[in-house]
Design a protein that fits this description.
mainly alpha, rod-shaped
Length: 97
């Protein structure tokens, strides 16, 4: 009877060790997945900002093209608009500081 009880106890101990190992492996995998998720989230934010910047630039180019009639005027208007946008961004940055 004692031997049977001891065998049962040993099986429970072995199974609990297996469960602990599986838990540790899953915990490590979760940490890796969380790190990858964080990396992808920050990359996503950066790409969204880039998309917004490109949309603004596209809109400025359309505006400059519609205002001017020659390529030289278009480029001059584009430069002027870009400078205005930079100045506005600088003012906003100073206001938030």
């Amino acid at each position: 009877m004692a031997s049977n009880l001891q065998d049962t106890l040993q099986r429970v101990v072995n199974k609990s060790e297996i469960l602990i190992e599986k838990y540790r492996a899953l915990l490590e995998e979760k940490r890796r997945v969380d790190a990858a998720n964080e990396s992808l989230s920050s990359k996503n934010v950066a790409l969204e900002k880039e998309i917004e910047r490109l949309r603004q630039e596209n809109e400025y180019l359309r505006l400059a093209r519609s205002i001017s009639s020659t390529p030289e005027q278009t480029e001059a208007n584009r430069a002027r608009i870009s400078k205005l946008v930079r100045d506005i961004d600088k003012c906003i940055s100073q206001l938030t500081d």
